[in-house]
Amino acid sequence: MYRYDEFDERFVRERVAQFRDQVSRRLDGSITEDEFKPLRLKNGVYLQLHAYMLRIAIPYGTLSSKQLRQLALIGERYDRGYGHFTTRQNLQFNWPKLRDVPAILDLLADVEMHCIQTSGNCIRNVTADHFAGVAQDEIEDPRPTAELIRQWSSLHPEFDYLPRKFKIAVTGAEHDRAVIKAHDIGLRLRRHPDTHEVSYEVSVGGGLGRTPMIGKVVRDYLPKDDLLAFLEAIMRVYNLEGRRDNKYKARVKILVHEIGVEEFRRRVEEEFARLDGPSVNADPAEVARIAAYFKAPDYEVLPATSRVLEATKAANPAFARWVEVNTIPHKAPGYAALTISLKPVGEAPGDATSDQMRLVADLAEQYSQAEIRVTHAQNLVLPYVRQRDLFAIWQRLGEAGLASANIGLITDIISCPGLDYCALATARSIPIAQAIQHRFADDNRQKAIGELNIKISGCINACGHHHVGHIGILGLEKRGIESYQITLGGDATENAAIGEILGPGLAAEDVPDAIERIVNVYLSERAEGESFIENVRRIGLAPFKAAFQEVAHAVA
Questions:
Q1: Spatial CA neighbour of 516 closest among 527, 524, 528, 526
Q2: What is the three-class DSSP state of 250?
Q3: Cα separation of 304 and 306, whole Å?
Q4: Cβ 181 vs Cβ 206: under 8 Å
């Protein structure tokens, strides 16, 4: 993991002191809420329906056990004993008191964490593949790139007040687990077909919200050394040309759409040629310094398959299923990357109690090089687990209610907090997720259905990524009643796609029936070995629309 140097430490501490003064002036009435709002947003403080919310940055989703233990302490001392992991690999506390936020920021600074640029019209937390450094399909670890961008973008004087928020994601693997095409900038590390050098494929103009769009490639093979200068060129074009008269049309995706990707690419290349690259791009020594922090750990030399694991699986079918669903093959023989589900049936997706956080921190220290990852799907990962240790971990997770074997399945639902918390929401999200989980709770049924990603948003802002869910659910308010619109065929991978609306909105109580009918169409029509999304692409939307309409007509 990256470790703060003296500059990082001073940078964060000075920001805490600055915000402490701003909070003091707000509490004594020296500044108004309107004056305070842009200051608190720059420090990750939102005003939600019932209380302030604090959003904490977890750069590229990488946490140490010490940091996770500190988050548990903060949740216990200053919140209600839990935190919520988000689709941007951040953590949110929903109930802090404003007067306590400076103290929370001090505790975060003690473990090299902060809330800087987790809100506001700036470059937000840079996200990455949660299996970075361990996945077998990886070309290169994307975390050094993400850390370099974090340092370059933090309080960048030219890009601190952009037309709108700006999000960057990085992946280094063949399979996209970072949803790069749904970001303002998506970077994919790939090898040049002729030189075989690792370079960047650069996509621009992705984003969800009220106008969902898939990012478009503006450079196929950008040399690694030119990264920051090329990003600076993109940001300059956007900062100068992006709309500031209408916040709903201020994202870079709108600019790319309005002028066309070819013209956008031309302007970026023109600006890139004008820039003094050496003065912008990172010094190779600094790049090497950052990369050294992400060196692979000293793995134990192990056989590719653990006999202990195989024997334990044979004796315990429930454990065998959990291993099958919640682990992936690892770069290192005898190891596995383990995903811990934060989606037990009936609980709020992405929530973890302080006690659960401490348990995961303990497990990371004992079994995973004291490191944890946060996924964009609101789960946690132990990236360096020896196969022979999986059973002991499973047992301890089971005692804490964290042993659900549902990663990538129908109950592993992404959900925003919705109207239970968010001032922008127009409908509830959490109860919808819980109702679907209860409907499909049976493990055998989930296994029979296979991979199926449901994503739920409580408003048009799409924090739950519903547009790119295999099944997407959008909660809206219609004539004072919550109404849920269902989309089908979205995809968050390298085959990124926006789902299509099936029909009119449904009442909350009718959503599980609609999901069941959609699933039943798949089960009756699928070819052998065909996943849900593959089936939707093959047979089209018509059979699913017909099943959906049966629910809509019955309600009417």
A1: 524
A2: coil
A3: 7
A4: yes
Structure tokens at 225: 């050394």
Residues 52-105: tens digit of each pLDDT = 999 999 999 999 999 999 999 999 999 999 999 999 999 999 999 999 999 999
Question: Do 455 and 468 form a contact (C-beta atoms < 8 A)?
Answer: yes
Query: CA–CA distance from 332 to each of 1, 134, 137, 177, 436 (Å)?
Result: 18, 8, 12, 20, 37
List Cα–Cα distances, 16 to 9, 57, 365, 516, in angstroms: 11, 14, 29, 49
d(CA 498, CA 441): 27
Concatenating the DSSP letter of every residue in 221-245 gives EEEGGGHHHHHHHHHHHHHHHS--S
Q: Tell me the C-alpha to C-alpha distance, in Å, between residue 253 and each of 212, 214, 547.
A: 9, 9, 34
Please, what is the Cα angle at 210 between 208 and 215, to 5 degrees? 30
* Residue 465 phi, psi dihedral angles, 5° rounding: 60, 30
CA-closest candidate to residue 389, choices 362, 366, 357, 407: 366
Q: Rounded CA gap, 486 and 152, in Å?
A: 40
Token representation of residue 129: 């593949």
CA distance 434 to 13: 40
Place of tokens 């699928």: 526
The CA distance from 538 to 527, in Å, is 10
- The label of the residue with tokens 């010094």 reads 283
Residues 472-505: pLDDT tens digits? 999 999 989 999 999 999 999 999 999 999 999 9
* Residues across the chain: 556
Label residue 378 exposed, middle or buried (CB < 10 Å: 0-12, 13-18, 19+). Answer: buried
Tokens 């968010």 sit on residue? 422
Can you tell me the distance from the alpha carbon of 126 to that of 85, in angstroms, rounded to the nearest whole number? 15
Q: Which residues pair with 56 in a beta bridge?
A: 91
Q: How many C-beta neighbours within 10 Å does residue 122 have? A: 21
Cα gap 381→221, rounded to integer Å:
31
| Cβ-Cβ contacts under 8 Å for 136 (sequence gap 6 or more) | 328, 329, 330, 331
pLDDT, tens only, 188-244:
999 999 999 999 999 999 999 999 999 999 999 999 999 999 999 999 999 999 999
**Residues 212, 498: contact at Cβ < 8 Å?**
yes
